[in-house]
Amino acid sequence: MTPRTAPGAARPVTPASILAARLESLVGRAGGTGLEDELREVRDLAVGLDPYVESMTSPESPALADLAAATAAFDWRDASGSLEQEMLSGHVEGRFLAMLAHATRARRVLEVGMFTGYSALALAEALPDDGSVVALELDESVAAFAQEQFARSSAGRRIDVRVGPAAETLRALAGESFDLVFVDADKAGYADYLETVLTTGLLAPGGLVCVDNTLMQGQPWAGPDTENGRAIAEFNAAVAADPRVEQVVVPLRDGITLIRAVS
Ligand SMILES: C[S@@+](CC[C@H](N)C(=O)[O-])C[C@H]1O[C@@H](n2cnc3c(N)ncnc32)[C@H](O)[C@@H]1O
Q1: Cis before residue 224, ω within 30 degrees of 0?
Q2: Which UniProt keywords apply (predicted)?
């Protein structure tokens, strides 16, 4: 397992940022090879991508910026399970999810895997006053952390947190339906969560499912071979072969797959 980073010192966890860090390191070691200038150009292309995308995207709300800062300032090395600051989706992905909520005119949103609540709050901010986000989280302490943040913003009152294993909470939600579902919990559980959402009426007719980390740091095509990489590779292949759905993999951050039911 990768050691958790000190507060504020996030490590690269997306294909683009990993590529940028690797190229930075290669530039540092390229002296005398004759490849320095070319490598620098390639490095600049990779290193500038995320900051450029971020600077051209509408800014995050003060409440989201505060939540991200509180998450980065917390020392996750003492936290339970595998929680780490890098789990937070962040500015551009939050805007993307909010844009999807607007575009689909979502009123009811379900999130599977909340962490400190960044995506839940980004989605809640995009909903009408009578809208709601039901956010599922396994870890009681991180759920409490998120709820403290939600209490500071008016959109936070639209978020209903349910603590427990998502598989159980999803079954307990039978009878409810959601216009937009964001899946971002344990990768080994993804196939089960999608199946439950598609087959039990949780996804409203015409609803959209968004699944995070479907590029999993590039592991499905470039390795290394890890448990999460295998889980995502299997999940992606199963979705690609599933005639019940249509999907597109968006290479934003660590990959988001958008899925809709077609039969
Ligand atoms: C990647 S983080 C979610 C990040 C969050 N959506 C965001 O955008 O900031 C994954 C979260 O899923 C939670 N989780 C893991 N397994 C779970 C399970 N079986 N049921 C519910 N939540 C789970 C973890 O505790 C963690 O907080």
Answers
A1: yes
A2: Methyltransferase, S-adenosyl-L-methionine, Transferase
